[in-house]
Design brief:
- The chain has 224 residues and is mainly beta.
- The chain is elongated and about 60 Å long.
- The protein has one domain: Porin.
- Strand 5 and strand 6 form a beta hairpin.
- Strands 1-2-3-4-5-7-8-9 form an eight-stranded antiparallel beta barrel.
- The longest helix has 19 residues.
C-alpha cells in the first residue's frame, strides 16, 4: 500500500474519531440488521497491461449481511459502524482458453461519519465517508476450459507459502443512506475503494473495488 493511501486512511479515521469523542455520551443510538448485494470487481496495479484488464473486467455479484450501529450526535452529524459478512470476487474470460470466477468471503468492519443533508424533509439523505477493513475467511477458484468443458474448483490455501491472496483488505468507503421519516426501513448505497494489494504476485497484483446496495432495518425503533 502506498504512502499517500496510508495518509488518506489515517486522516479519515482521525476525523471520525474526533467527531465521536468530542460529543456527549448521551447521543441517541440506533442499531439494526442489514442485507444486500455486492457488485465487485478489481483494479490492476499495472494499468498498462490492457489484455489482463480486459480479461478480468467483469463484475461479480455477491451477498452481504450484518449489523449496524449509529449515533445521532446532533440533528446534523451522525457517526456509525457496521460489521458484516461480505462476498466479493471477480469473473474472467482468458483469451478463449478458459473462463471462471473467484469467490472471496470476508468479515468486514467499517467506521463512518454522516451528515443529515435534508433534516426537515420526510425523505432524509445521509451522505457519509469513512474507512473499512476486511479479513478474508476463505475463498475458492472455479474455472472451466472452453474447448472441453472440464470444470475445476480449488480452495485458497492460506497455509501454503505460495498462495496468491492476502487475507486483509482495507480502504476508503463512500456511502449515502436514504430513510423515510417514522419508518424503520433504510436503503444504503456504498462504494468501497480498496487500497491494499489483494494479490501477492507482482505481475498481476490488484486492489478490490465494490459497490453494495443494502436494505437496513432499524431494530431500535421497536423499543422506543
Amino acid at each position: 500500500m502506498k504512502l499517500h493511501d496510508n495518509n488518506l486512511i489515517s486522516f479519515v479515521l482521525m476525523v471520525v474519531a474526533l467527531i465521536c469523542f468530542a460529543q456527549k455520551s448521551t447521543a441517541q443510538t440506533n442499531f439494526g440488521v442489514s442485507l444486500g448485494s455486492n457488485f465487485s470487481s478489481i483494479r490492476y496495479s499495472d494499468a498498462n497491461n490492457r489484455e489482463l484488464i480486459k480479461e478480468h473486467k467483469k463484475i461479480k455479484t455477491g451477498l452481504n449481511a450484518g449489523l449496524f450501529i449509529r449515533q445521532n450526535i446532533n440533528p446534523i452529524i451522525i457517526v456509525g459502524s457496521d460489521l458484516e459478512y461480505s462476498r466479493k470476487g471477480l469473473k474472467y474470460n482468458q483469451q478463449g482458453l478458459k473462463k471462471g470466477k473467484i469467490k472471496l468471503n470476508y468479515l468486514t468492519w467499517s467506521a463512518m461519519g454522516y451528515i443529515n443533508a435534508s433534516p426537515k424533509k420526510r425523505w432524509r439523505l445521509y451522505p457519509g465517508i469513512g474507512i473499512y477493513s476486511s479479513f478474508m475467511i476463505n475463498g475458492k477458484f472455479t474455472h472451466t476450459l472452453t474447448k472441453t468443458g472440464e470444470k475445476t474448483t480449488k480452495p485458497i490455501d492460506f497455509k501454503s507459502n505460495n498462495y496468491e491472496y492476502t487475507r486483509w483488505d482495507a480502504g476508503l468507503q463512500l456511502a449515502i443512506i436514504m430513510t423515510l421519516k417514522n419508518t424503520p426501513w433504510e436503503l444504503m448505497l456504498a462504494y468501497q475503494h480498496g487500497m491494499i494489494e489483494s494479490s501477492k504476485r507482482n505481475a498481476d497484483s490488484f486492489k478490490n473495488r465494490n459497490l453494495k446496495l443494502v436494505i437496513q432495518y432499524n431494530l431500535s425503533s421497536l423499543i422506543k
